[in-house]
């Protein structure tokens, strides 16, 4: 059988016959018919066989009418009207958490962004809240303990910066509170280096602070000066900080103001300490004035709720007895206002604004002064006696007041004598405050002829002075020194201070700062040699066990005495003293000793020492006299010291201090005076023989 290879099949022949008539149509296609055939024909396998297996076979052609070639999908499963691929679902798949086969691991992961907190920012926020709370409560101990609990001691300089910057934008009260807190934190919570760093940070940010606080330079300078005065910043801080700051910044202006305007001024310590009031509380006069104003405003308006709010705003709950007393006096002066006043007191008692003890004290104080009040209001006693029963029946005055006032009628003869003596000395003291005539006052006391009541006089003198201005306080201290020389014994003065300290809590009801004032009077008495330092311990031992406030006052006085330059500071605490600077006093002492050494008279030299008027500084006389005796090899100086000791002009305490200063600087003194140690040993033995020095002097060093 002949092979069909190379010949067309019948089917192919038919296709060729049909092709010529359609040539034009096919030629219009982008591809020729031959191309189409070649694309869609399959080559037949070799060898004979059926037409379906020989040559090429034509398959079904899928193409668009536009002539563009379309690639056929290889895996299928698509197209219109098809079921799609195996296991294919319509749309996106969703995880059903209620499905029993639910697996949380199939949930898509989601990244959540969290802010990373800065420890310093958190610390600053905590510090701000502590400072705000301190400004509202004034509790130094709580603020210090809160800062300790915060930890992060490396951030303590920011405490200084934040505290001062917040106080700078507030009232003087907060500035004073900030200074008090800084002193409390010094060394105990914040070390000195960190305090210096905090103030330097403030100096660096002075330009920024000035944008919000116009007086930044002056206020910050005062804070730095106060820190130097309070010994929490060294004076060298100013020089060191100036070198580290650029010339054009306000920080240098701050340092210059602190140095020139504050720290170089005469008596700068007292001026700086009192620039913001010197206390975190209102003065007694301010509180009394506010009470009087709010009561008069209440009488005019009749708004009880507003009056209670004003009383509460005073924030002196321990002093509300003054409100009671003044309200009752006002009710007696303006009888038409009596119903309003009683209504206010009743409401204040019912709300717990004024405690029962404060109410009792207010009524008791008025009862004690009712006789004096009758001079201005003749019917005062009758009006008071009519108010008391109504107050008791309404329940806002304790019934114990009636019993107390009834029992007070029986007084012994001694009580009557003391009462009469007090009336007389009050007039004498008032006259002294007006005239400043000490000899006249001494004559008046001698005319009374009651030396056994000298402690009572001292108590009344200081109590009256504490409720007055600094001038009267200074006059009281000067008078106390004069009385000690003339008619008062040391025992009288000790007894008087014991009586004062025993009644310190009652005194504080009228005088808010009584404890500090008493401490200053005690310290001033020691500085003026009215009391010896050992008397302080004696006073403490004689106080009753339950008198904690009195013991605290003595401790405060001792701390004042142990401070640096205590003598000069305490002498000028009320603006008194001779007004001389220490250098001036040293110069005067040197000149009077030189004049005496060149042939002066002992009595004249003693008078010159007395005229200097600085008994707390007489140890300088002792020191310079001993040095001159060593240099000049002249024992006349020892005769002067003997005379001063005999007259009581220089006390054993001052002599001991002078010898102690020589002993401390003996090595330096030996460079100029080779035999200084031998001379000093001789003078010590001589002083012990003559009673200038205690036998125990120098034994502590020898041991």
TrEMBL record:
Residues 1-32, 81-105 are annotated as: Disordered. It comes from the Eukaryota. Keywords: Cytoplasm, Nucleus, Repeat, Translation regulation. It is found in: Cytoplasm. Residues 87-100 have a biased composition (Basic and acidic residues). GO terms for cellular component: cytoplasm. The keyword Nucleus applies. Residues 122-243, 286-407, 420-541, 584-703 form the MI domain. InterPro entries: ARM-type_fold, Initiation_fac_eIF4g_MI, PDCD4. GO terms for biological process: negative regulation of DNA-templated transcription; regulation of translation. It holds the Pfam family MA3. The keyword Repeat applies. Belongs to the PDCD4 family. This is MA3 DOMAIN-CONTAINING TRANSLATION REGULATORY FACTOR 1 isoform X1. It comes from Nicotiana tabacum (Common tobacco). The lineage of its organism: Eukaryota, Viridiplantae, Streptophyta, Embryophyta, Tracheophyta. The gene is LOC107790693.
């Amino acid at each position: 059988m002949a092979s069909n290879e190379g010949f067309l099949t019948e089917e192919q022949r038919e296709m060729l016959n049909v092709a010529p008539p359609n040539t034009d149509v096919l030629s219009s296609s982008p591809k020729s018919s031959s191309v189409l055939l070649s694309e869609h024909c399959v080559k037949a396998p070799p060898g004979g066989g059926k037409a379906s297996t020989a040559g090429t076979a034509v398959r079904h052609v899928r193409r668009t009418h536009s002539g563009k070639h379309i690639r056929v999908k290889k895996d299928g499963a698509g197209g219109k009207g098809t079921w799609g691929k195996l296991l294919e679902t319509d749309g996106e798949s969703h995880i059903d958490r209620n499905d029993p086969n639910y697996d949380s691991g199939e949930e898509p992961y989601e990244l959540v962004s969290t802010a990373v907190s800065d420890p310093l920012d958190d610390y600053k926020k905590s510090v701000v809240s502590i400072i705000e709370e301190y400004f509202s409560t004034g509790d130094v101990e709580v603020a210090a303990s809160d800062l300790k609990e915060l930890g992060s001691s490396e951030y303590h300089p920011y405490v200084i910066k934040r505290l001062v910057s917040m106080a700078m934008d507030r009232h003087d009260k907060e500035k004073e509170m900030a200074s008090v807190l800084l002193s409390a934190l010094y060394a105990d919570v914040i070390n000195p280096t960190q305090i210096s760093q905090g103030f330097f940070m403030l100096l660096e940010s002075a330009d920024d602070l000035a944008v919000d606080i116009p007086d930044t330079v002056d206020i910050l300078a005062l804070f730095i000066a106060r820190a130097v005065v309070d010994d929490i910043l060294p004076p060298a801080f100013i020089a060191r900080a100036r070198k580290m700051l650029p010339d054009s910044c306000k920080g240098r202006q701050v340092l210059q103001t602190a140095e020139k305007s504050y720290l170089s001024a005469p008596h700068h310590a007292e001026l700086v300490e009192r620039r913001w009031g010197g206390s975190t509380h209102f003065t007694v006069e301010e509180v009394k004035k506010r009470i009087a104003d709010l009561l008069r405003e209440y009488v005019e308006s009749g708004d009880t709720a507003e009056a209670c709010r004003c009383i509460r705003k005073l924030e002196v709950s321990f002093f509300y007895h003054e409100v009671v007393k003044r309200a009752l006096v006002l009710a007696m002066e303006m009888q038409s206002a009596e119903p309003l006043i009683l209504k206010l007191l009743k409401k204040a008692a019912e709300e717990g604004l004024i405690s029962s003890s404060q109410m009792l004290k207010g009524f008791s104080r008025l009862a004690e002064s009712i006789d004096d009040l009758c001079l201005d209001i003749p019917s005062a006693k009758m009006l008071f006696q009519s108010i008391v029963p109504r107050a008791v029946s309404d329940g806002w005055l304790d019934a114990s007041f009636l019993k107390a006032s009834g029992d007070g009628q029986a007084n012994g003869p001694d009580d009557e004598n003391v009462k009469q003596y007090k009336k007389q000395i009050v007039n004498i003291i008032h006259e002294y405050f007006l005239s400043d005539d000490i000899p006249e006052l001494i004559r008046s006391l001698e005319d009374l002829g009651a030396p056994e009541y000298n402690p009572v006089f001292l108590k009344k003198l200081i109590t009256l002075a504490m409720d007055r201005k600094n001038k009267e306080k200074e006059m009281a201290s000067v008078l106390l020194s004069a009385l000690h020389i003339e008619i008062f014994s040391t025992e009288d003065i000790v007894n008087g201070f014991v009586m004062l300290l025993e009644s310190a809590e009652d005194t504080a009801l009228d005088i808010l700062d009584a404890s500090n004032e008493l401490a200053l009077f005690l310290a001033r008495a020691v500085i003026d040699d009215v009391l010896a330092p050992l008397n302080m311990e004696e006073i403490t031992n004689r106080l009753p066990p339950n008198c904690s406030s009195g013991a605290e006052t003595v401790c405060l006085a001792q701390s004042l005495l142990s401070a640096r330059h205590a003598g000069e500071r305490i002498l000028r605490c009320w603006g008194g003293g001779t007004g001389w600077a220490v250098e001036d006093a040293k110069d005067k002492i040197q000149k009077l000793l030189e004049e005496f050494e060149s042939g002066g008279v002992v009595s004249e030299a003693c008078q010159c020492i007395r005229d200097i008027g600085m008994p707390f500084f007489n140890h300088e006389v002792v020191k310079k006299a001993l040095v001159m005796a060593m240099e000049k090899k002249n024992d006349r100086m020892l005769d002067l010291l003997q005379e001063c000791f005999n007259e009581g002009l220089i006390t054993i305490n001052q002599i001991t201090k002078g010898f102690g200063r020589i002993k401390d600087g003996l090595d330096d003194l030996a460079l100029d005076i080779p035999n200084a140690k031998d001379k000093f040993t001789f003078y010590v033995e001589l002083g012990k023989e003559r009673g200038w020095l205690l036998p125990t002097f120098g034994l502590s060093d020898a041991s």
